[in-house]
Amino acid sequence: xxxxxxxxxxxxxxxxxxxxxxxxxxxxxxxxxxxxxxxxxxxxxxxxxxxxxxxxxxxxxxxxxxxxxxxxxxxxxxxxxxxxxxxxxxxxxxxxxxxxxxxxxxxxxxxxxxxxxxxxxxxxxxxxxxxxxxxxxxxxxxxxxxxxxxxxxxxxxxxxxxxxxxxxxxxxxxxxxxxxxxxxxxxxxxxxxxxxxxxxxxxxxxxxxxxxxxxxxxxxxxxxxxxxxxxxxxxxxxxxxxxxxxxxxxxxxxxxxxxxxxxxxxxxxxxxxxxxxxxxxxxxxxxxxxxxxxxxxxxxxxxxxxxxxxxxxxxxxxxxxxxxxxxxxxxxxxxxxxxxxxxxxxxxxxxxxxxxxxxxxxxxxxxxxxxxxxxxxxxxxxxxxxxxxxxxxxxxxxxxxxxxxxxxxxxxxxxxxxxx
Length: 420
Known about the structure:
Thioredoxin-like_sf; magnesium; about 425 residues; two-stranded antiparallel ribbon; about 45% helix; transmembrane helix; Tumor suppressor candidate 3; OligosaccharylTrfase_OST3/OST6; alpha/beta; 4-stranded mixed sheet
């Protein structure tokens, strides 16, 4: 039985790697544009003369050369319309695996290159910091160095930064004293056997890195901060200078808590205290030797009372706090030149402020002594009355002045009935 061209193309059964194109479905071939239209084709197509391609009843058109009505739908078993089977090639499994392997190699190469670049950058930063540390225990930094070596990653080391203002025009005496303690701590770390590249000490002066102060919203100095190897500094990474002080031993303890690096502080020998004690003992011994025949002054109650009052005045006025914290004597505003002798915060004081408090306490004590003398003496009544009025005036006036100072430092101080 003769077959048509369409019949030769259609296999008896669909091979495993072919895809059957059903009616009313578009056929998409790899590498070619999708044909528009259906893929049901009539078995024989008419030639230019109205004939058929091939011969045979199975591929003949109906009488008159017209397709059947109803969109070309034929009854079951009618073979005048043939279906086209088109094989769709699949890429070999080996080529897919090779492509995936190439993509993985390319991705690993990029990741490896980026990691190597980070390691090289980190090595350069550590090498530079070690070179600076070999020259000076405390590394001075400006804004650019701070952003590159302290803020920017990668970083596998901790950095202790002291923000200060050491220029003479700033008149920050506490900054100079804190810097001395900081230098002692940095030198102790630099020359210790445990020295490594895991911890560096740096300093940022306001006149050299004002942009850093502005970036960190910092408006006071000195300030000590710890910048950890990973992440941002936390609240505990800022040293509590007002509560603990800036002694090198306290700074070392804080650093041990934040970095697990323990630093043993080595101070240079200081013989000033020993010399002062020797001079005091020599002075007292010489005085006793000169008055060896008359030592009645040792039993003088008034002398001992005056000495005790001097010690009390010194302690209650904050002299010991000044010795520990080392505050400036006063503060001069650089903008208007106004000098402040009373610190505006309850957490700090000036040296001049302690002197003022000492004098006020002494005046109040003097007033109380005069009141006691006026009440216990047996002299003239008029004289006793004058002594009483003077003593009362001293107590009221200077105690009111003392309360006003407390009110300026402790806002909302309850004892405000004397000062309006």
